[in-house]
Automatic annotation (TrEMBL):
Pfam families: BAAT_C, Bile_Hydr_Trans. Residues 14-142 form the Acyl-CoA thioester hydrolase/bile acid-CoA amino acid N-acetyltransferase domain. InterPro entries: AB_hydrolase_fold, Acyl-CoA_thioEstase_long-chain, BAAT_C, Thio_Ohase/aa_AcTrfase, Thio_Ohase/BAAT_N. It comes from Phrynosoma platyrhinos (Desert horned lizard). Residues 205-411 form the BAAT/Acyl-CoA thioester hydrolase C-terminal domain. It comes from the Eukaryota. Belongs to the C/M/P thioester hydrolase family. Gene3D superfamilies: Acyl-CoA thioester hydrolase/BAAT N-terminal domain (2.60.40.2240), alpha/beta hydrolase (3.40.50.1820). This is Bile acid-CoA:amino acid N-acyltransferase.
């Protein structure tokens, strides 16, 4: 009797899952196939081929995949190498509260690259991958000028407070905020353009907006204070660095693959103005695949001309953690981070650190997001870079380090057992 066990059957999207097959014939070749359909109806699939051991078992903690979307021992390989059936589509959970992603794991005899409806699986089971833990509440924020979504863990708190910023596509993404809230932080996923009644484009970064958001979050009765953390990706990382530099409310910043000077949009805060380095859109490169590499569109941090636009990170009160992917095809994020760290050191600020990951691309997210190396932004297929396995390892490692960093500088989260 063939048995397929996938445990736990319901978990947070960043948690590991353990897959074991038993009851096979010794040396039998089998296919493990994963599939999920996202909220837009796009199907994602991954498969790997395994050989049963002498006991007729395949334990993904020990057995190497012989081929498929990955090879070798990789317990989470089926989840981390999911690929869309529609080109250049990014897997992203939009409705974090209402439902999990359902991932169907099927076991087939022999190797099946593309199982059809004629192929009957030996076993199938479905796992739930949640982006929010039980008891975490979501509040839509439309207060003063501030627009976003606030995630509050269960219990009396107080909890450390964190502002979460996404990048240059605008809008509001909540999946990282809801996952972080599931670890015991109060997290404000903060929109800053192209959302609700905010401006459609980002022409200037006005820090008064982020100051208003920080004051609002600090006033929340479940936020511990006296200061906040901020986490940002891409354009959100640039802004995270800017607000950590100029807002006394920000005590710790995590900047993932962002510029460290004002790029494209200038900064304003009262009388303070930092001019933007202009974009050079004529430097985009269109690849053999028809995709767009924007690496050279942004200013070069090593260029003398970028100095006037550099964020004076030495003024930041709190520590800064830079997380960079060395295969980032969107931005020279490692050079930017190194330039900022060198600048900080020059002025005697020594609490900026760099976590640099070989083979990781631009979109470093919590574990559970499969690599997306190309996706559509502003109707163009943009390259983000990354190698599937190295990128996944970077996500796993950096996500733990980010939580440790916030815990160290903001105090313990509410309930680390959640
Ligand atoms: C970080 O460095 C700055 C500048 O040296 C210093 O004022 C601040 O106290 C440091 N913060 C922490 C948390 O170590």
């Amino acid at each position: 009797m063939v048995h397929l066990s996938v445990t736990p059957e319901s978990s947070l999207a960043d948690a590991p899952v353990w897959i074991v097959v038993a009851g096979l014939v010794p040396s039998q070749i089998v296919t493990l196939h994963a599939s999920l359909t996202d909220e837009k109806g796009v199907r994602f699939e991954a498969r790997a081929f395994y050989r049963a051991n002498n006991a007729g078992e395949v334990d993904l903690k020990q057995a190497p995949a012989l081929g498929g979307d990955y090879v070798g021992v990789w317990p989470m390989g089926l989840f981390s190498s999911l690929k869309p059936n529609k080109m250049h589509h990014r897997l992203m959970k939009r409705d974090v509260m209402g439902s999990p992603f359902h991932i169907q794991i099927s076991l087939y005899d022999s190797y099946k690259v593309m199982p059809s409806s004629m192929d009957v699986p030996l076993k199938t089971c479905t796992v739930e991958r949640w982006y929010v833990a039980p008891g975490v509440e979501r509040f839509q924020i439309k207060t003063g000028r501030v627009r976003g979504a606030l995630f509050v863990p269960p219990g009396p708190g107080p909890f450390p407070g964190v502002i979460d910023l996404f990048g240059g596509g605008g809008g509001l993404f909540e999946f990282r905020a809801s996952l972080l809230a599931s670890k015991g932080f109060v997290v404000l996923a903060l929109a800053y353009f192209a959302y609700d009644d905010l401006p459609q484009t980002l022409t200037e970064v006005n820090l008064e907006y982020f100051e208003e958001a920080s004051i609002l979050l600090l006033k929340h009765p479940k936020v511990r204070g006296p200061g906040l953390g901020v986490i940002g990706l891409s354009k959100g990382a640039e802004i995270a660095l800017a607000i950590a530099t100029f807002l006394p409310q920000i005590m710790a910043a995590v900047c993932i693959n962002g510029a460290t000077c004002m790029n494209g949009a200038s900064l304003r805060f009262g009388d303070l103005h930092i001019p933007a380095l202009p974009y050079s859109p004529e430097r985009i490169v269109i690849t053999e695949m028809g995709t767009i590499a924007s690496l050279h569109v942004w200013g070069d941090p090593q260029d003398e001309s970028s100095q006037a636009s550099a964020i004076p990170v030495e003024k930041a009160l709190g520590p800064v953690l830079f997380v960079v992917g060395e295969d980032d095809k969107s931005l020279k994020s490692k050079l930017y981070a190194e330039a900022a760290i060198a600048r900080a050191k020059k002025y005697g600020k020594n609490n900026c650190t760099l976590l640099s990951y070989p083979g990781a691309g631009h979109l470093i997210e919590p574990p559970g997001s499969p690599l997306c190396c190309i996706s559509q932004m502003h109707q163009r297929p943009l390259q983000w870079g990354g190698k599937t396995e190295l990128h996944a390892k970077a996500q796993e490692h950096s996500w733990k380090e980010i939580q440790k960093f916030f815990e160290l500088h903001l105090g313990p989260p509410g309930n680390s057992n959640l």
